[in-house]
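Pipeline run #58 for the internal structure catalog. This entry was flagged by the ingest filter as a single-chain record with no existing model, so it goes straight to prediction. Upstream metadata was stripped on purpose; only the residue string is passed forward. Reviewer on rotation: M.T. Logging verbosity set to normal.
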Amino acid sequence: MRWILFFFARFLYAEDPLDVARELLCSSLPEDTQFTSLSGLTNKSYLFTAEGKKYVIRLPGEGTERFIDRSAERANSKEAYFQGFSPTHAIFFDPATGRQLTPFIDGFKGYEFEEFYQDDLVEQIAHLLRKIHTSSLAFKNHIDFFERMDRLGLYLQEQAISLPAEYLSLRAALQEHLHLDCFEAVPSHGDPVPSNFALLDGKLMLFDWEYSGLTDPACDLAFLSSVMSYSKEQEEDLLRYYGATPMSLLREKLIYFKPIVESWLGLWGILQIVCCNESQKDFFKTFSIVRFKRAERVLHSEEYGRAIELLTPFHKKGGRLFRTFPIDPQVPLLAVFPRLSDRVGLTQIEFGLWICPYCGILNPMAKRGCVCPSCPLK
């Protein structure tokens, strides 16, 4: 069995886990050291024991150096570990190759895919993501799905893989909304899929920070919703558990990110066709087709058009959101601040706690939505 494992390791990754383990940890590892293949798609990981201790060695997947910043991964993983968001950290990490050696964590609980439909777990996940997004994690890199897709697309073309017309059409359509400037840049995991969550000593944590960086909070939420194929009701529950309000625009941002995430997943699926063995090729072909179709469906939906319409007027300034719009003299805001009445016209109103970012009306109950009956954020 071990020679079969080594054959696939050499075929797919051109590295023998025993050779790498000897190089990274102990040159005297015996020839009969047992390696157990662990689950994982982007990379290949093996569990082994050396001198009575368990370790996990990771060999990077083919082509991943083209769209994963390994230096950022090393820095972000370390940050996440020391702030209590990750259960382990690398004792050896080579940013040039992506090879990594970590201690194996005994006693953690992994999750099955189906468990991510349970309300209590979804609530815990939403709270964890919010803690990460509002933390002091000092990430330096930004998550840019468009750049990532372009890099992966170029790699696939270099492997003589033609990019599907569906993807090229999606990429061009998504490009039209790159002008939007209403997104935050907060620490984010970037890949919150079921296999990356673990419960350790009663605390929910996240593994694998290779896709992490700074982006809008809605990106992680959209990624989880897309991977899990959440229904509209389940998506609303996720937003509610996260603490989103109608006036936070988080719902609209999540809708904006969904076709981007789906397009990325479809393209990533094509990479797996290149790397996987023959028995898995049909699965990943179907996977990619489904993801591209779902991206198209969202992109052409009424809710996507409405989300773009709501997000377009906003822009960032000094880390805060503003919207430029004409002020109506009848708006209650002017009754509270009458000195603004002589500035009627195109005016910038700060996106604050009490003022609706869409219509400018003063809202004493802002967390429940705008009090204006005609406002889309009511």
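catalog note: Residues 250-275 form the longest helix (26 residues).
catalog note: The two ends are 62 Å apart (CA to CA).
status: ready for reviewer M.T.
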